[in-house]
Every structure is written in C-alpha cells, then in structure tokens.
Structures
1.
Amino acid sequence: MSTNEVDSVPADDDRHEEGPTFADLGIDDRVLAAIADVGYESPSPIQAATIPPLLSGADVVGLAQTGTGKTAAFAIPILMGLDTAQKKPSALVLAPTRELAIQVAEAFGKYSSHIPGLHVLPIYGGQSYGVQLSGLRRGAHVVVGTPGRVIDHLEKGTLDLTQLRYLVLDEADEMLKMGFQEDVERILRDTPNDKQVALFSATMPGAIRKISKQYLNDPVEITVKSKTQTNTNITQRYVQVSHQRKLDALTRVLEVEDFEAMIIFVRTKQATEELAEKLRSRGFSAAAINGDIAQNQRERTIGQLKSGALDILVATDVAARGLDVERISHVVNYDIPHDTESYVHRIGRTGRAGRSGQALLFVAPRERHLLKSIERATRHPLTEMQLPSVDDVNATRVSKFGDMITENLSSDNVALFRKLIEDYEAEHNTPLVDIAAALAVGGFDGDNFFMEPEPEPAPRRERDRDRDRDRERAPRRYDDEDGGPRRAPSFSRESGQELATYRISVGKRHRVVPGAIVGAIANEGGLRRSDFGHISIRPDYSLVELPADLPNETLEALRRTRISGVLIQLQPDQGPPAQRLNSRGPRRDREARPRTERRKPRS
Ligand code: AMP
C-alpha cells in the first residue's frame, strides 16, 4: 500500500502555500461548473489528495471524517467516469445510516447538476420498497444505500450489480460498529473484480485494515497529517449551536462581545455574500471577501477594515490568507473548518503584533468530532462558551444606550442643542426627561429595542388530544407532577424536538456500544442521527433519549429490533420508582438525563 500523508502548514506561516485549484486536479468542465455553482473555492486537503489517484484508477483508503469534504472527494471522480448510457448501476456507495445515505445522494445530485440524464438513488431501511423498486427499474447510475437494504435488494434480485465499476465504503468504521461487517464483505466479494474501491473511515481498526488488505487492490492510503500549534495569546472558545440557529447565535455574540474588528469564516463564496448581507440588514457594518472578488476591491475592503471604517469581514479561507490587520480582535469560525491546519491559520488572523485575541468556534452536534480533532492536533482544549441569553443582550443594549449618552455629552454640539431644548421646554412646558425620550425615539427603533424572550416550545399536540393515553404510553416525562422532581424536558439540540428516555434490554453485559444502538434503532425505526439524545449504557440495560412522540408503528418496530442478537424490547423508561421521591441523594438515572436545562432551545 502506498501512503500519502497530506502535509500541513505550520501555524503562523503566512507564506501559506497556494494549494491546487479544482481545475489543476484534472476535473472536467461539467463537474467544475457544478462546483462553481455550489461555491467551493478550492479543494479541501482530502479532495486534493484523493481525486487524482481515483481519477487514475487506483483504489484509495482515506482516513477522513465527516466535515472534511470526503463526499466530494469520491463523488467527483466517480461522476467523471460514469457512462449515462449504461442503465445498470455503475457506482454503489455504502453508508452506515439512512441519514448519511440521503446526504451522500444529495451531494451526488449537486455535483452532477451539469451532467444531463444522470440518476442517483438512495436506498435504505425504513423506506418503502415501492419507491426504491421503481427507481431501480428506471435505471440508477449511482446507488447510495445502507448495507442491510442493499443486501435485501440483491437477494430479491432487484439490484443488479454486475456492471459495477465503483464501490465506496463511507464511514467504514461506523458500518462495522453497527454490525454490517458481514454484509459489507459480501458486497465486496459478490461484485465485479475489476471495480475500483474507495474506503473512507475516521479510524483504522484492525478489521478495516483486514478488509482493505483482502479486497482492495494496492490502495493509495491518504491521511491528513497534523503539524499544528496555536498561539498562546489567543483565547479559544466554542459554542454548541445547530446549523439553523447559527445566525441568531452570531448576532447575539456580535451584540454582547466587546470586539474591535472581527473576521468571520464561512466555507463558500456564496456564504460570504449571504452572511455579510444578513449582518448588514441587522445593522452591523460587514463586508464579504472571497476568491471571486477583484484584487483592487479586496484591497479597498481590507483598507477599510484597517482604518476602522469597517468592523466585520466575512471571508473564506482562501481570501483571508496572509491577512494581517492588527485591529482584528476576534475570529469567528461560523462554519467549522475542514482541517486543523485551516483552523490554526484562521485563528492566527487575530492576536497579531503581540496583542491578545479571541477565537470562537461554532460547533453543530454532528461536528463534535471535528472539535475533538482540533483539540487533539493543537493540544489545546477549547473552553465551552454559553451563548449570551436574551437578558445578556438586553443588558448590553441598555448599557450601550447609556454609553452613547455619555459620549455625546462631550460633543461640541451639545451647547447648540441645549439652547434649542431649553427654548422648547419653556415654550411647551414639557419635562426635560420627556424631551430626551422623544429625541431617543428619533434615533432608535423602540419596538425592537429589547430582544424578545424566547417563546416556550409548542405543546405537544398529542398531549392535548389524549392526555390519559399519553401518560400510559409515553415515557416518563420530566415535568410530570405525580411525585417526581420537576425537571425541564429535554430537547434535541439539532431538531429542537422534545426528547424522552427509553429503556432497551441490552447493556454492557451484551457488549453493546453506542454506535450499535444508534445503528439498529435508526435503521429499524427510520430515525435520523439528530433524533438521538444521550445514550447511557448500564450493566444490564441501556437508556436512550429519542423523540417523545414516536409513532406507535415505530415503537412497535423497535420493540422487535435485535442488537447483538438480543431483542431490545424498547419501552418508555419509568425510572426506578423507589428512588423517585428519595431526597437523600441524586437519582440513579440522572446520568440518562443530562444537561436538560441547557438543552432547552432558544428561539
Ligand atoms: P463532507 O465531509 O463531505 O460531509 O463535507 C462537509 C461539508 O463541506 C459539506 O457541507 C460540503 O458541502 C462542504 N464542502 C465540501 N468540499 C468543500 C470545498 N472544497 N470547499 C468548501 N466546502 C466544501
């Protein structure tokens, strides 16, 4: 196996070498046009390293996690090699979960938007066979599926892989953890020998090495090697925030943090423009820079940032290379970077000339592993920051209002206006405080001066309809008033839906791992990863947080699901009754209900 370690650039090196462009990688015009449409500026390290060997026909093993851009790394070369006249599937991507399968299929759709007549079909457990059968009958060039469902179709004779030319194992370690090893090996064995195989995995356990040795043909191994360090005068924090709430989170940070100038990093050119526009419409002075902006315009914008005419720059990695502006007190990683080196380079835009700097990273729940790899590679733990609350924002607005008055009192024009106001007071006999308030009305939007408190989450419809039935069926809810301590309900950070605790009959004794629980429940119950809350594995059983209003059919399907051969008998958790009222110590099941207060979503 030849090994290819993608070298990184040391922390503060502003001679940051220009990497290859997508065109340099030999990508054809149709795919280049699609990439331009989605707005990627340059290949991520895993793309730069993987696309050329895949295009040359080699098998590849890529050590890469979600968030590194690995989907495009395998999708682009496959799309370039497909013949749309061939109606049987030419490419199969195996993914551990239905959620990932859909995501990968969507990514193929995006990257093939300029290839007419190309069909991509996701197939996964939980979806009716009808849709999948008609998709297969119509002819799919690329099939993206979970291993179990792919095997089902193979056994039924509804999926013909005799013409397969590309096979991708995505998140291979996850697939094995979820018990798909046999299925994966069977697919590797029962498909044409001359197919090209790409295997992506976040880790390289022995079982994956074995698969790669046995089924791949002298693969090129690609690892992104970290060689990073961060500057100690930069304070690094992170905020947990779902993708949908990032803009709200950013505005709160902008209101409350005391910053001089800020650079906000996003992934695409479009995102720079869109975010800068949204910030301007919220009253912040913000401009975008990206690789498409002409050099003189870029210089003008940076000049404004230097002089203080502009405070917020929204940038891509490429556009911010080598940027050296002392005023930048804050760097916000609005979109988490693909690799640690980009992170180090991004945050190196603050803390210049011996000053101190602040770096803030937005992390969505499924990006936590990227945070971990940043911490590992920089050997620097990031501190979690709680988002400013509505009260924090309002307190800042009041204090800034006061500061404005104090500052304006020293203006040369005060004498002029004082005379006019004295005249008004005498003429209208109006108290001075009313006159001052009237003047403030002219300068501020009183209707929106205070941020509104967050609305309570919508009540569950089911509860309103049939409370009694719910009580019987639904898992113990934290706000029950029948003796248990009052607790705030738990909410999914990603989807905002209410979660409840369910008990399953497999535990440490059965050697289950969280991945196996998520895999089995997601596949059999048709759930997404974002539907899961905390999982706690106990000696004989486990507690899993899932949406509180799972439909009956899903509950039924999950009661019959097996993990490691054991029927899981999923049921709402009633908690240990003897201890519910016990005030002497913490509830034994507390571990299963973590961070409930913090999980409450903000509006
Ligand atoms: P993945 O690791 O494939 O799940 O990709 C993570 C995210 O990065 C997705 O939102 C992609 O759209 C985005 N992405 C992939 N490649 C690039 C690139 N070269 N430049 C910017 N964003 C990218």
2.
Amino acid sequence: MEQSYVVHYSEVALKGKNRPEFARALARNVSRALYGLDASVRQGDSRIFVQTGADEGEVLRRLSKVFGVSWLAKASSVPPELPAMSTEVLSQARSLSGSTFRITARRSDKSFAMTSKEVEESLGAEVVAATGKSVSLSRPDANVHVDLLKGRALVYSSRVQGPGGLPVGTAGRVIHLFSGGIDSPVAAWLLMKRGCRPVYLHFFAAPYPGAPLDGKVGKIVRILSQSGGRCTLLLVPFAEYQLATLGTVTGSLEPSLFRRFMRMSAELLAPAFGASALSTGDSLSQAASQTIWNLRTFDDGCTLPVLRPLLTYDKEEIVDLAKSIGTYDASLEEYKDCCSIVSSHPKTRAKGGDVSELASRLGFAELARKSFSQGTLVGYDPSRGKTKVAPLGEVLRRAALEPSARGGVSTQEKAHESLEPF
Ligand code: ATP
Ligand code: MG
C-alpha cells in the first residue's frame, strides 16, 4: 500500500534568499537516497513529501541519514475538515501504547476556521472519550500531530530524527585526505554535515589499489556514502615518493615531508575536481605531526584553505562520533598504509623552510603527477550499489585536465562533473 512521508528541514539553516536552492538540493538528495524504491518526491509548504509503497523501515532508515533532514514521519493525508481529521487521529491514537497522549496542531494555513488550540481541544476530547486515555501536555506517552496545510491536513504520531545540517553538495567540494584511521572518516562526515562534498584522496603502499579498495578504505567510504550519497575516491600509490626520498631524508623530518607531499598532491588535484579547499582529520597536538608548528609546515605555501573539522576534538569525542556514524569498527581493521611514515618520531617543530627546500629539490610536483598516472579513480553510487573504477591518469588526460596542463582553471572547474563516473 502507498504510504506518505513528510520530511522537515531546518528552518533556521535554510532561511534567506538561498532557501529555494537548498530545498531543491535536499529534495534531490532525498530522491537519490530512495533510489530503487519507486518513490515520488515533491517539495511544497516548506516540506518535502514522499509517496511510496516501499518497506517503511527501509524508507525511514535511508531518509534519517540524509543531511539537511531535521526530522521525518510517516503521515496520513486527509481533507482539512474536522470529521476526516478526527477519524484519522482516532485510528492512530488507538494503536499507540501508553495511557497518556496529547494532540499537537499546527496551522500553516491560517484561513482554517479554528485556532490550533481549538483543534487540539476538540480532537483531544474525542480521543479521551473513545480510548479512555488521559491528556498530558508536558510528558505524554504519545503525541499525535495534526498539520493543517492548504487543501489538506497531515496526521502523524511518530517522528524520526534526521541528522540535521545542510544538504550535501550545497557547500562546494573539498579534496579530503583520507586515511584508514578513525579520525579522517569522522572529519569527512562532519564536512558532509555542513554541505561539503568530499573527494576522498587516499595514499597507499601496496602496488595494487585492490588492497585499499577491497579492504577497510573501500568499506569506510561505502559506510560514509549512506549519509553523503555518491562519491569519488582517488587511490594514489606513494611508491614514487618512497623511491625519491630513499636515503635522502632524515627520520625526524620525514613525517612533515610526507604530509607536505600529500598536501601538494591534493592541491594539484583540486582544480580538476572543482574543489575549493582541502581537508584533513587532524586534531591539534593529537600526534607530534599535528602540533601547531607542524600544521603550519603542512599549510605553508598552500593556495587553498585547509579545513580541519576535528581540530579541537579530543580523541574520545572522535571515537564516540565514529561509533555513532558506524565507521569505528572498520577503522580498527588491520591495514598497512603509510601510518609508519606519518607517525615515526617526528620533530614537533619541523622547519617550514627545510620542508619547502626539500620538496622543491626532490621535485614533489612532478612526483605527484607521476603518482597520479599510477592512481585509480573509484566512483561509488550507494543507491545503485555500483562501483566504477578507472585509471586516474587516463581520466585526467582524457578530459585534458591533467594537473600538469593547468591553465584554464575555470574550464576545469566546469568540467569536473565529467570526471566523475556518476
Ligand atoms: P588515526 O589518528 O585514528 O589513525 P587519522 O585519519 O587521523 O586516523 P593520522 O595518522 O592521525 O590518521 O593522520 C592525520 C591526517 O593525515 C589524517 O586525518 C588524514 O587527513 C591524513 N592522512 C594520513 N594518512 C593518510 C593517507 N594514507 N592518505 C591520505 N591522507 C592521510
Ligand atoms: Mg589522527
């Protein structure tokens, strides 16, 4: 049987001139989240309406993860007349557990003859008479909502909380440095919550991208895509970097140098993917490589903002978030990447000059491009359950967007959509 759902977005966040654009983006993300369920999605009355015969649990599960959704409910739509509303309210009230209830009426259509309070009192009295339940306005066991809209009333008694935030895609793209650890997935989730779309960039040690893709990195990206929707993961081997630095770099400088290599690579890829910023899972002083001086060395000379949503979070807070998002267990899985380089007894105050001098002497920009040519682009669309894989170098070349051929930046920004498989 067809069911209706009403989806509410945060009124405060979506105020102002941009509101229609945000609402459209949210409706689009809601549609995508429901892919394959044969659902119709419509905007109106500052809400999104969904009509579908799909399993209720599945619909609620998918929609409660869409950023920008404040809350949602399975709702019955009836004519905005007291007898029709009363029939529906009584039917819902009979199936509710507990001995107390309240009616919460809201009039979006102020032309309705009764005030919200009058509607509540009238319907409440009928429920008391029919069920023997009593009214509790402050701590009811159940709350039956009646929203009076133009031409119809919505009746629902169970709200499901959404994640809040802004629709993914409304705050631009970022190249997100993505490790297999606990922190960077949480940072990505927080960025998505504020509307950013991350393009995940992961550096790996193994000669073939199968290890990260079939292992925890691919797994975590798939978990995150339940909230963020379709996404792009760039897998780049760092063998070229290892070869170039072998025997040249002293141990304590190496973490800062490698992090500079990752940052420069991300920056070089940004225009091709239309990204306006870089982001990381850094937390201030969590590791020696993340002291304020080393973060400065990381950022030195970077022309893009570097976003660090976890900068002020304690590890415990990050772990709690990772557990609630669902990435924690996958992050603990064993995986051999470059952690040993990032965390091997680094200097707490690496000198920016030393790192920059080495980066230019070792030709990091060229090393990064060589690494891209051995990299892999993975597109993942959770709603279709599809993964597409393409050689990164070839994708960049085919679109004539290879970072080495930089120039027409605006054309590149426009063309970034075509780089992505979905
Ligand atoms: P954890 O600290 O729980 O191991 P993490 O994701 O923070 O996880 P760190 O080793 O602390 O990993 O690295 C700090 C940051 O550097 C990461 O958040 C990430 O942004 C970046 N980073 C580390 N390793 C990689 C990698 N292999 N590829 C891309 N970025 C990485
Ligand atoms: Mg960390």
